Amino acid sequence: EVQLVESGGGLVQAGGSLNLSCTASGFTFSNTWMYWLRQAPGKGLERVSDISDGGSLQYYEPSVKGRFIISRDNAKNTLYLQLHSLKTEDPALYYCARECNGNNCRNRGQGAQVTVPS
């Protein structure tokens, strides 16, 4: 059974930082391109960032480029997202996912809430 479990969400003031983690199991993590998506209240899913199986290729949604950093540790089956310089438009439920076609993903975790008070 595929499991993706996010952790590390929380409340942080604008300009602050958070680190999200996603622990994966039930599939060969080291062979899998991985994704972070987010969903803000009343909005659709948005692709935030993704990373190739070896970690050498990364994509960032333009609004987060230069502020968020995606990485992975294949030995630990763990995906990371560092969120820096958080803005009031960043609050959302952040999901890690695999096998995504656009915003449609075969598997997604339960999400980690990120809150930035306005």
What does the secondary structure layout of this molecule look like, with pairings?
Elements lengths: L2 E5 L2 E2 L6 E8 L8 E6 L5 E7 L6 E3 L7 E6 L4 E6 L8 E10 L2 E5 L3 E4 L3
Parallel strand pairs: 2-11
Antiparallel strand pairs: 1-3, 3-8, 4-5, 4-9, 5-6, 7-8, 9-10, 9-11
Rg over C-alpha atoms, rounded to the nearest angstrom? 13 Å
Global geometry:
globular
User: Total strand count, please?
Assistant: 11
Residue share in β-strands: over 45%
**Average pLDDT reading:** 96
Low-confidence stretches: none
Largest sheet report: 7 strands, mixed
Number of helices: 0
Given the helix and strand composition, which structural class is it?
Answer: mainly beta
Proportion in helices: under 10%
Order of helices and strands: EEEEEEEEEEE
Straight-line N-to-C gap: 39 Å
